[in-house]
Orn/DAP/Arg decarboxylase 2 N-terminal domain-containing protein (marine sediment metagenome), 276 residues
Amino acid sequence: HVQLSTRTKMFCGCELSFGKEPNVHTCPICLGHPGTLPVPNASAVRQALEMPGLEVVGLHVHLGSPLFELEPYREAVDVLLAFAAEMGKKHGLKLDELSPGGGFAVQYMEGQAPPAIGEYAEAIVSGLTEGCRKHGLPLPRLIIEPGRAIVARAGVALYTVGASKEVPGVRRFVSVDGGIADNIRPPLYESQYSALVASKALETRRERVTIAGRYCESGDILMRDADLAPLDAGDSHAFFCTHSNEVRLKLCEGSEDVEEYFSHWISRIVYAGTKD
Ligand SMILES: Cc1ncc(COP(=O)(O)O)c(C=O)c1O
Ligand SMILES: [Zn+2]
């Protein structure tokens, strides 16, 4: 992190001054509103280029993660190349590296269809080659940031079901032996996962339950109003796609049991990591 000595912020025209009340110099761009278009600060790039001991090797943008659409990558590459061409002419920037950011989307829920890696590659590389031709630039070294897409599907978290509590007219809570400390995403911003009662994988009956964590915080909810096979104490509750967020993999003793539990999922899961 650096403190800029520019008049405006790095990606928008908001005044850059210190000592004012919080949230005074803000606009839709720096508040991250959808549809806004950040533009890098030319003065910051010029100053970096002029600074002895600092080598500007390229440009990077972070679009947000995970991104299910491809068009933003094409647009971002074009914006970066147009800016690189302008900075090249004005200040001698040589674009050796370019990164259109990440991360690639993963399928958390059934029905979600993230692009294949090849489709991301096609969008980014075709955007890069066309853009370099259009802006008269040599091809830079391409950096990609797939992020969680590399590992998310390599793991499944298994929780053991504990006590349950019916709040009449509200919902049925079922507690498991994990929660906010090992899977922070659902409590933090209600992210959703595919899940299965692993010990009743072939059960077709469904019961609406809310899966609560063990950490005694009111926000420690892993799934809200999920339709799952009826849960009893001791059941195994499986969360898919959890390898990316510090979930300790709670694999059963011996992977053969796990394969049996997940007979209809196993072809899509590669087990990784160590026990607990
Ligand atoms: C600069 C940058 N690149 C890539 C990613 C993608 O990583 P992930 O998909 O694991 O969030 C992030 C995370 O938001 C990021 O900040
Ligand atoms: Zn702003």
Q: What stands out?
A: The chain has two domains: 42-150, 152-268. Residues 62, 65-66, 101-103, 145, 147-148, 244 surround pyridoxal-5'-phosphate (ligand 1) (CB under 6 Å). The chain is about 20% helix and 15% strand. Residues 71-91 form the longest helix (21 residues).
